[in-house]
# Entry
Amino acid sequence: MKILVATDGSDYSLEAVKKCGELLKYDEPAEIRIISIIEPLAPVGVEPFGVSTNYYAEAEKEAEKNAQDVVKNSKELLEGLVSGSDVTVLTKVFFSRSTKGAIVDDAQSWGADLIVLGSHGYGFVKRMLIGSVSDAVVKYAPCSVLVVRKQSEE
# Structure
């Protein structure tokens, strides 16, 4: 089984990583690919609002470093959860103008059997205003999708 786990480093995506580890059957081989997508901050060659392109380049470099840390930490967590099983964990970080589209496209090209991602739990109004990655992935994914909600802390 090939499982694509999308993470942004939030508590919500951490829950998705944990749930992925819980769901695996230990006697079956699996390949898990943890991805994080970075949305570029500004069009190349444009200096909006008088801010230099160097600032944007440094900010993107820092965002990439953070994303690398996120997938590394998620990989370590997942490997701890599935130790002793026949599971391979891979990571990938890349830039895309559309997080939603990048997850769907990567699942398609990699041949994923399942996509696992967290839900921020936004209500109707907030989803309408800022959109929902999980809603779009569910709608356009080439495979099954598991949207994991963060357990309430009571």
In short: The domain at 2-149 is CATH 3.40.50.620 (Rossmann fold). The CA atoms of residues 106 and 127 lie 23 Å apart. Residues 125-130 have pLDDT under 50 and may be disordered.
